[in-house]
Write a structure and sequence with these properties.
7 helices, disordered N terminus, two-stranded antiparallel sheet, mainly alpha, 178 residues
Length: 178
Amino acid sequence: MVFASSAPDNGDALSPPALVAPGLRRRMACWTYEGLLMFGVVFIAGYLFGALSQTRNALDNRHGLQAFLFVIFGIYFTWFWAKGQTLAMKTWDIRVLDRLGRPVTQPRALLRYALSWLWFLPPLAAMAPFTLSAGETVVIMLGWVAVWALLSRFHPQRQFWHDALAGTRLVTSPPLSR
């Protein structure tokens, strides 16, 4: 098995390894790196959407592009989470599993994707009726992200709450070889 065990080895070949949640800093560093990698996905998907829809101006067909990106992100994350890791998760030695420590299924990965929007939808919904400056929007979004991340401290296994709702968990996954 590829997971780190924090329990002492008692020689029992049937005892499962401990599934240890990565620290909050490491998970947030992975989250930030994932965001950087998504720029490439957005660029390619945006180019493809613009070419297929013959959109000349970025503001034309904006809602169509947003819906297209939502689907592309869903495909990206569902695909990689069902395999256990995205590129950013491999870099930071983090793996996503179900509650019992098994690989997640594609339906569960899709549920995790839908619930992961809890990182963004509450502040976006709260800001919708107001006309806020870009700076105010950034402060509110980053504030909510910090609150949502810190709420994992109240979960018994230190998991993010969208993982708890989706029946998934992030665990430390030591590299197979380096």
